[in-house]
Amino acid sequence: MASHSIEIMILGALIERPMSAYEMDKTLEERNVRRWIRISSPSVYRNVIRLCEEGYADGTVVKEGEMPEKTVYTITDKGRERFAELMDEAAALPARVDFGFLPVLANISLVDQKTGRALIDELIETHRSTAERVDALIPAYERLEARATMELCADTYRLVAKHLEQFEKDLYGEA
Predict the structure, then answer these.
(1) How far from the centroid of its chain's Cα atoms is residue 97's Cα?
(2) Any idea where the domains of the chain sit in the sequence?
(3) What is the rounded CA–CA span in Å between residue 155 and residue 144?
(4) Phi/psi at 15 (nearest 5 deg)?
(5) I need a surface site. Which of 22, 24, 79, 143 has the fewest CB within 10 A?
(6) E strands within 4-151?
(7) Taking a C-beta distance cutoff of 8 angstroms, is the pair 9, 88 a contact?
(8) Rounded to whole angstroms, how far apart are CA atoms 162 and 146?
(9) pTM reported for the whole predicted model
(10) Which residues, including other chains, have CB under 8 Å from residue 17's CB and lie 6 or more apart?
(11) What are phi and psi of 82, to 5 degrees?
(12) How far apart are CA 55 and CA 160, in angstroms?
């Protein structure tokens, strides 16, 4: 079963315009969706077919000139209802924070202070540099939604770095 995020992205793309799974995959790639939603190319294809089977989209095989046949998908009324339902559900979910480095912090007291400071400093630098890299990408996005999402990501990386600085001071005192 696909995550609701994947369904939202696929149905949202089909609301914008009819498209093939290949075009949808390229659209998600261009919008850098994979930075925050785990959705592989095969997953796009699998899920758009499943959404057709469930009545949320229709597929029509078309042939354009010398190009091979392709299936162009459109959203159905049932798909629009599902999209609205998923958007409501997703907006009501509590925010989930799942940082891969949390086990390091949970076990930081098990290493000596020098090692602990080095680990925390590395985390701080990683988050700062990631924020800078994301900031550099933002001007390339034409869509306000994409820019806003990337700004939120960059701000989150900066916030984590700031929190880690305070954590290090609280744990070890001033350097």
Answers:
(1) 13
(2) 4-92, 102-172
(3) 16
(4) -65, -40
(5) 143
(6) 19-20, 57-62, 70-75
(7) no
(8) 24
(9) 0.72
(10) none
(11) -65, -40
(12) 42
Residue with tokens 């294809």: 45
Residue 39 pairs with which residues in a beta bridge? none
Tokens standing for 111?
A: 């290493």
52, 11 Cβ separation under 8 angstroms: no
Q: Which amino acid is located at 81 in the chain?
A: E
CATH of 4-92, one of 1.10.260.40, 3.20.20.210, 1.10.8.60, 1.10.10.10: 1.10.10.10
Reported in sequence order, the residue ranges of the chain that DSSP labels E, i.e. its strands, are 19-20, 57-62, 70-75
115-135 pLDDT tens trace: 999 999 999 999 999 999 999
